[in-house]
Amino acid sequence: MEMTTTRPRTRRVLAASTISALLATLLVAATGPAAYADGSPVPGNKNCSDLISGAKELRIDPPSDGTFTDGTLSVTLDVRTLTSDDPSHSGTQTGSPVFDYTATGGATVIGVAVKGGPNTNFYDYRPGGANSGTALHAPVNPANDKFFGLSHVSFCYVPKVQPAIVTQVSAASITIGDPVHDTATLSGGNNPTGTITFQAFGPDDATCSGTAAFTSTVPVNGNGDYDSAAFTPNAVGTYEWIASYSGDAFNFAATTACGDVNESVVVNKARPTMNTVPDLLPNDSATIAGAFAPAGGTISFKLYLNADCTGDAAYVEPDQTVDANGTYVTSNTTFKVTADATISWVVEYSGDANNEAASSGCTQEQVVMDFTPLNS
């Protein structure tokens, strides 16, 4: 017959600071015990299936130093003897057996059942799990306040699942200066958390081996669709997208591959407009609009004395560098008309790395000059 001893209790009055500290401890405990927290005794010899519905179990009997696996979960044990008392218990535990553990593999430990004496000490690590722990032990022996010897240990776990991730870029072709984003669909996960990181490589980095031109990370809260932030490329060319899911305690990581279908976007040059207006002849001006960060291109003005802009130009303005959208004007040049003529200005913008070329054409800006000599 097993006998237990009932001890007289001493009533204590706690100071306000002590009560506050105790409440703080209880609040922390309510959110789920840390891996090193003390377990809760449950009566009898309990397996994982008794304690957590649907949990898988790796049983180590008897506990000893070493690494143990069932092909899904691997656990390394370090069994030792306490050299000092456990502050979470009254009495003396010096000399009692305890163990530390680390777990790896394709699973997450959500509880540990430590059998010793007539009962089981259960460490409940739900919901987040704990793949390491320190100084776990069997229940307390009420006869001497020490921990019972270690009979066997059961690691309760949930195998990780492999979610799928597929992606779709918002547009296959855009003009430089326009935004684009990527969408990732995460499916098959076990209430996945963690993050999805989107990266765009380019321009013209077909293997995604260079530094990403753009990175966006978003939090994950369940299976579903997740959008990256908007990306506005600053150079033309083809960009390749990759989306990577970080994984978590219950889900493996997942990633798309460089060059996946629906993950390329072609960024085209901007197509600026050019509006020309004749000033006091023979001067001219042209306004460039819609260019994206123009740099290095030039604008040229040519004056022809015919309607089809054939032959040599009667006047050529020195090229001007185009470094911004805006109006460009010819210099004050004196040009004499000595006969009836159709004066035609042709204005051309060369374009640059980000912008297509533009031209006014021959007929956009023509003036018919009726020459009448002063002595007629």
TrEMBL record:
Spell out the Gene3D superfamilies in the cross-references.
Answer: Immunoglobulins (2.60.40.10)
Secretion signal, residue range per the UniProt entry: 1-37
Keywords (alphabetical) are: Signal
* Record keyword Signal present: yes
Sorted alphabetically, which InterPro entries does this protein's record hold? Answer: Ig-like_fold (IPR013783)
Q: Which domain of life is it from?
A: Bacteria
Return the protein name.
Answer: Ig-like domain repeat protein
The species this protein was found in: Phytohabitans aurantiacus
